[in-house]
Amino acid sequence: MLNEREIESCYLGQFIPVHYHHNMLMDQNRMHGFKSAIDYAVKPGAKVLELGGGTGVLSWFAAAKADKVYCVEFNPDMVKEARKMLALNANGHKVEVIHADAFEYLPPEPVDVVICEMIHVGMLREKQVEVIESFKRRYAARFGGPLPVFLPEAVIMAVQPLQQEYDFEGFYAPIVQFQETTAIHPGTVEMAQPAVYSIIDFSQPNELVYSWQGKFVVERGGQINAMRFVTKNILAVVSERSTTIDWLNHYMTLPLAIPVRASEGDVLQVSFQYRAGGSIPSLQASLKAEILYEAAHQPVQFVPAYA
Length: 307
What we know:
Layout: H1 4-14, H2 18-25, H3 28-41, E1 47-51, H4 57-63, E2 68-73, H5 76-87, E3 95-99, E4 113-116, H6 128-143, E5 149-151, E6 154-164, E7 167-168, E8 171-172, E9 177-179, E10 188-190, E11 195-201, E12 209-217, E13 222-238, E14 243-248, E15 251-262, E16 267-275, H7 280-286, E17 288-293
Parallel strand pairs: 1-2, 1-4, 2-3, 4-5
Antiparallel strand pairs: 6-10, 6-11, 6-13, 7-8, 9-15, 12-16, 13-14, 13-15, 16-17
């Protein structure tokens, strides 16, 4: 009999179909970013742990330099897939694929790097934050400090008001949309600049609830009917070059339950709250926007003629 967390885990991303993992292999931005970051973070002779290994490709990247890689995967179908794929590749023998729950597994020895890519836009659906926070507590209790380097090292999350078209050949459907970050989207109008609402540093303790209320200055008139959520993953900090290796998730655009008519210069207030790993509808239910101050109603300042 599954407990409540196991039921939720099965529903929210733990058992992603095999073909979805194949699509991730074909995502060149994701693959190149992780390969570069892992090559930088993993030093020769290192011990590496991957939590949520999928096809095993990120563990394989690590195996190019590491002496040993522990690749933990909960989905039995993906365990078989990863073992099959790794057997086809050089250095695959250095990766041990372990069928276990990332919430419970600890390696038999201290590791230098932990790779965890259970990432969804806004840290929704998948268990990235919760898994890493659980791991840090259990690892410190067994091995003490220091903690391993985490990859990604950090995440920056932002939100942006939009005027979004929801006309599909005449059929009006305000749906959740995922958009390529490098493409032009003619049906999307950015109504204000993005605002950062959370920064996650995986080397530090992190909260699991994001509660935010912020303001935007509207840059053009129109109807604000959606909010874009932006998630930038800082895969590795390259301190000697004062730069980072990043991976930007697809934009996630959520329709507002109550659209807002706005004019240039208006001040828009937006608020929401959700739990890391929670469902997209849980965020949508809390998402609210309203005009806090109308630019057209600003009082005219009296300026003396002699000024």
